[in-house]
Amino acid sequence: MSFVDYPKAHQAEQWSKGPEVDDKNPALRGPLLAVAGTIVSKLPALQKFLWSNAGFGSLRDYVALSGVIPRFVPLVIPVENNDQAIIPSATNLDSVLYERAAADLIGRYHTAADYHNAYKSGNVTPLQVAEALHSLVLRGQDPRSKYDNAWVDSHGADNIALEAARQSTERWKQGRPLGLLDGVPFGVKDDLDVKDYVSHMGLKYQSNLSFQKPAEETIHPVRKLQEAGAIMIGKNAMHELGCDTTGCNFNNGLDYLKTLGYEVVEITIPNLKECQLAHGAACLTEMAEQHRSRIGKDSNWMKTVNNATKIMLGVGSCTPGLDLIKYHQLRTVLMEHMAYIFKTYPGIIILSPTSPQIGWPRNQGDEAYGVNDANTSLRNMMYIFLANMVGCPALTAPIGFVNPEQGEGQLPIGMMAMNEWGAEESLLAWAADTERYLNEKQDKWCEQGFGS
Hints:
Low-confidence stretches: none
Mean pLDDT: 81
Oligomer: single chain
Protein name: Fatty acid amide hydrolase
GO molecular function, one term: fatty acid amide hydrolase activity
Strand order of the largest sheet: 6-9-8
Enzyme class: hydrolase
Radius of gyration: 23 Å
Structural class: alpha+beta
Largest sheet: 3 strands, antiparallel
EC number: 3.5.1.99
Keywords: Hydrolase
Number of strands: 9
Number of domains: 2
Shape: globular
Distance between the termini: 38 Å
């Protein structure tokens, strides 16, 4: 396989620097957050102070970045020898993805292969599955579904999924399924456009906003899933504009892997602190620019977001062009280092925890006012930022459950795997191996069963 825009393989060096300094971002919640959000959105000088306090300007003096060509988009495209982009076909997937786990495996979850087998046997139809899930994700029911807060309002587009399920059921009835994914349900994050659905982007729905209208087109990845017969059940809730990792939005094991034949090697990725700062600052800058563009010519362009988001957008709007270039120069360095790792260890899957935290404890007032805690947010993104910054495929799989700091029951913890550009299928095979590690399901796990 060859690629377009594959980074040159170059091992990055650890830059010399002073002692590690703890982040000094203030944590704001409750009524104080409500006041601070309003003030910060009105005072550019305070926005600039918070930007500097977060360390977002600390990269401009790194001599090691001099002469590095910045990469603004981490796009690496696998191509055939004739320079045509490789378009994976959902109707011609690797046979390993059709393999089902043992029926008596404890903690077993339904996979696309299970749905495929159930439809093939006639034990259940795609329409029956879609109707069962529809009753769980639909908002505004009485009594309310305990799962509906994971999904956003479809504003009357609910029947689209049911109609797609009817068509899939008919294909199965006639013995003409499109492939492994025909009839398999899935959800789409609320900032991705799907035809006839509203992309709220985590914002409170306001019909007068021009960008909160039903989408006219479906983005390419979702369209390819739908063309393969997969059924989009609805859109998943997200943090407002995706500008934090708490999920608080009042608008809406290596030894085991060795036994499976994996070889464990250690790798080094230098300058992680600087890379994480660059990632966070670049994301906030992009969010501020995009939201301001959506609102249009309005001096009060932050009026549509909540107080926590006002602080984040205010900070992101302060990024000078000089620093933005440095962030993307660092992206180049990081992508070249990842290319070096993939060249040194062909086929490597890079593993890390999904997050160093066991969930995000609730505090009084969070659900009424929101929360802004940048230190915890950056810590929460300690591992996941890497794939986002370099554009490599990655996924997270549950590997166990632990006791939370508060509340009853247990919370899932995940392991994240990242692979080379264009190697998505090997990640799916890894996830199948990893999920076998789980040995129990939790009380609130939602599962619409069907015969084996």
